[in-house]
Amino acid sequence: MVAIPIRAFTLIHLAVLFIAGVLLAISAELPISGYSQIVIMAFVWWVTSRSQSNVFAAFFKSGLVFGLGYFIIALWWIYISLHDVGGMSPVLSSFAVFALAVLMALYFGLAFGCGLLIQNSFWRGLVLPAAWVMAEYLRGQLFTGFPWMGLAESQVHGPFMQIAPYLGGLACTFLIIWASWQLSLLKIQNTLVVVAAIAIVQILGIWQFTSPNGAALSVRLIQGNFEQSLKFNPKEIWQQIHFYRDAIIRSPADLIIVPETAFPWPEPDLPDQSLKMIQGFVDQSGSQVLLGLIGKIPKDGNTFQYSNRVTGFTKDQVPYHYDKHHLVPFGEFIPPGFQWFVDAFKVPMSNFARGAITQSPFPISSQHHDIHKAQYAAISICYEDIFGNEIASRLRQSQNPVSLLINVTNLAWFGQSQAPMQQLRLSQLRSVETGLPSLRATNTGITAIIDHRGKVQAVLDQFVQGELSGTVQPYIGQTPYVIWGNWPILIFSLLVLLTAYLRFRK
Q1: Of 51, 172, 231, 318, which has the maximum CB count within 10 A?
Q2: Whole-angstrom distance, CA of residue 160 vs CA of residue 174
Q3: What is the pTM of this model?
Q4: Domain residue ranges in the chain
Q5: 420 by DSSP, 3-state: which?
Q6: Nearest in space to 320 (alpha carbons), one of 274, 359, 283, 287
Q7: Catalytic position from the list 136, 153, 260, 384
Q8: Percentage of residues in the chain having pLDDT higher than 90
Q9: Gap between the Cα atoms of 16 and 211, Å rounded
C-alpha cells in the first residue's frame, strides 16, 4: 500500500470538506432538507474525526473550509444586489461575497475547533452541538448580527421542528448537530437513540400553546413585481405608486398589505392625493391597510432623516407608523468607522434612521364580526424576521397580545436566486417558534400566508404582478420560547462546555 503524505492527505481532507459545505448549502433547497443536512453533517463528522491532527488549529481550519463552501453558495445572491442592481464592479462584488463568506465561516471554524477537541465520544456528542449553538448565537449578535442560513431553518422540512416552540431555532440546531454526530459513529445503538429522540420531539409537537382568537381575517397581499432598477427611477416611481394605490382601493378586505417601499417616496412629501385616497377608501370600507414607504423623521433644528417605514391606515384613526429597527449594514446604514470604505468603493446604500426597539403592534378589526375586538399584528421589515429572539422579545414586551406576524419586504435586490426561498423558510420558523400565523407581502415574491404551525397555506409565484387573497386565523397565547427566549438553550450549552472543560482539561 502506498502511503499518502500528510500534506496531500490534508489537502484532500480540506477539499472533501469544502465540497461537503457546497452540498449542505444546495441541500437546503430540497423538500427533504431537514433530513439531508443531518446526513451530510454526519459525513462531515466522520471525515473530520479521522483527521491526522488533533489540535484546535487543525479543527478550526477544517471548519473554516467547510463553512466557506457552505456560505459561498448560500450567499451568492449578494453578488446580484451589488453588481446587477447596485452597479458595483464584478471583482469588488465577488470579493464582497467572499469576504462575508469568510466572516461567516469563522463561526463554523470556532464550533469545529472547540467541539472536536474532546476525544471522549459521549462528551464530544454534547460539546460539539453546544459549541455550535454558541457560535450560531454569536453570529446573530456580533457586528449587528447575520444569522442567515442557520441549520435550524431546514427543519421546516425536518424531524426536529417541534422543539422550536419550546426552545427556539437554536435548540433545533443543537439536535441537528447531536443527531449527526451520533449517526457518524455508525453504530446501531446510536442510530436507535436518534430515532428515539425524533419520536420524543414529535410527541412534544402535540401540545399547542396558542389558540384561535376571534374570527378569521380576510387578507389581500399585493405583489407589484417592479424591478429594482426601476424602483427609484424618477420616471417609474409614479407608475409604481399609482399601481399600488389603485390595487389597494380596488376592493375591501379586513387587511390589505403592500410590500416594503411600495411607495418609494418620503411620506410627508407625496405631491399627489394617493394617501388621502387610501385613507378615504379605508374610512368608507372599514378595511385596514399596511403600506411600505419612506418615513421622514425630524431631528434637531430643521434637519431630518429618512427611515424604512410601514404606515398603517385604520378607519377614523391617526395613521400608524412602524420604522425599521434592525438595519442592514452597508445597505441601510454605515457602520462606525467604514465611511471611507463607502466613499472609496462607491457602495450603493442608504443611510436610514433606526426605529425604536419596542414599537406598538398594529391593531386590526374585522369588518364582519366584533369590530370592538381588535387583533394585534407585529410588523417586521425585510430581514428583521431572521432574528427570532428579537421577535420573541417584542411579543413578550407588547402591552397588547399579538396574534399575527407580518413581514413586508422587497427582494427585487436579489433577482432569480434562492434568497426569497431562504427567507420564506425563516418566516416559517418564526411562526413555529411563536405559535402565530405569518403574512408575507413582497415586491417580487415569495408572497405567502403561513399558519401557526409554519405550514404555507397559500403562495403567489415569484416575478408575477398580482395579489394573493385568502384568510388567516389569528391565534393568541405565548409559547415557552416567547416567554424564555434563547436563555434555556444558551445556559444548557454553556454548562455543557464548562463541565467538559473542567472534566477534561489537562
Answers
A1: 172
A2: 10
A3: 0.91
A4: 6-208+486-504, 211-478
A5: helix
A6: 359
A7: 260
A8: 57
A9: 48
* List 61, 172, 382, 467, catalytic entry: 382
Catalytic site residue 260? yes
Q: Give the model's confidence band at 134: pLDDT under 50 very low, under 70 low, under 90 confident, else very high.
A: very high
The mean pLDDT of 401-424, rounded to a whole number, is: 89
First and final C-alpha spacing in the chain: 37
* Catalytic residue flag (residue 276): no
Collapsing DSSP to helix, strand or coil, 338 comes out as coil
Contact 288/244 with Cβ under 8 angstroms?
no
Does the domain spanning 211-478 belong to CATH 3.60.110.10? Answer: yes
* Exposure b/e, 468-503, CB count within 10 A at least 16 = b: bbbebbbbbbbbbbbebbbebbbebbeebbeebeee
Q: Label each residue of 38-76 as H, E or C.
A: HHHHHHHHHHHCCCCCCCHHHHHHHHHHHHHHHHHHHCC
Q: Tell me which DSSP letter residue 506 carries.
A: -
Exposed, middle or buried by CB within 10 Å (0-12, 13-18, 19+), for 332?
buried
* Catalytic residue flag (residue 114): no
- Choosing from 324, 332, 384, 467, the catalytic residue is 324
Supply the Cα-derived Rg of the chain in whole angstroms: 24
The beta-strand segments (E) located in 233-332 are 255-257, 263-266, 288-298, 304-313, 320-323
